Amino acid sequence: MEEKGQALTSYDVSSLVIDNLCDRARGQGTAVACFYFDFAAQKEQSSASMLGAVLKQVVSGLEKVPEGMAQAYEDQKKVIGGREPQLDDIVKMLQTIAGERPTFICIDALDECVAKYRVKLLDSLNQILQRSPGARVFVTGRPHIQAEVENRLSGRVMTIRITPRRNDIISYLHTRLDEDTRPDAMDSSLRADILKKIPQDISEM
Amino acid sequence: MVQRLHWGSTKDPTFLQLPAIPSTDQLNHLPSTVFKIAKMSQHRSHDNINSFNNNSFNTVSYNCTVTDDRAQILTWLSPLEPRLRHKAIQEGQVKNVGEWVLETEEFRGWYAGSGGSESDKAVLFCYGDPGVGKTLIR
Fold first, then answer.
1. By the CB < 8 Å criterion, does B99 face chain A?
2. Whole-prediction pTM value?
3. C-alpha to C-alpha distances, A4 to A143, B17, B45, nearest whole angstrom
4. What does the pLDDT look like over B46-94, one tens digit per residue?
5. Contact A132, A99 (CB under 8 A)
6. Which residue in B98, B110, B138 is closest to A16 by CB distance?
């Protein structure tokens, strides 16, 4: 999942976008929620727990927990052992809140979500967007899920291809060279050579 | 108030001390009625200490009821904590990498649509093959 030595990963882009959205949302009553899928956590990252985590972030920004939600929480306590929130209920609650305030949902590495959960998740997002066209969804993933995303969220998707650009590579090299644990092997001319040669080779490809 | 407490605790160490509880030994020398009462009060004072602790515990949880409920409801919604993952990624992030994405027309249009229905493209999908960057840089 986390591949060291990579100039631009999906989670670099995701976390950058999330931070940017959060900066702009400050004091605006805008909700920003994030989620990072991870192969290693596939079991617990179901469609319900994922969207539940999105809802949790949205609600934590509200002054008060919506009354219906507090009531649903009290009601489930009466069932022995409690009852987890169901996907349908979570979608309804998200529809309501996203209709009242600008809401951003950012999802990283959707391809790392189990296929059957991914279908449910995309359909749920579609339901939310149907009700609240102002809600925004940001998704990153490998190219093989592009068709699936476009089909399930028909007509709503815009795409950007992420490839490391020259500036990304230069920023990346600067950081990695600064982190070098054997500074003796490095001098300023070698450093300058690396910073010149590698981005050049890449732009020629 | 803060000053008084401060003064009390530094300059006069007895200020915050509780009244001494008579020991059973001392009580045995007292006449029987007084003894009983004193013994009772000894008993009571221990009780009081316990109930004081209980009370203060109750008070604390009472004060937090609203927040507690809120926290419990949030945990009930999902046990997952994606914001912690976000923090971890933030820390390891290389500065400025990927910033061009924010400048693309697609991103700008997508963001602008959040206000109303200017853009019907509510979903922005960024795809990339993680293998590419990796092989080039290694």
1. yes
2. 0.72
3. 20, 60, 64
4. 444 433 333 333 333 344 455 678 999 999 999 999 999 999 988 887 7
5. yes
6. B98
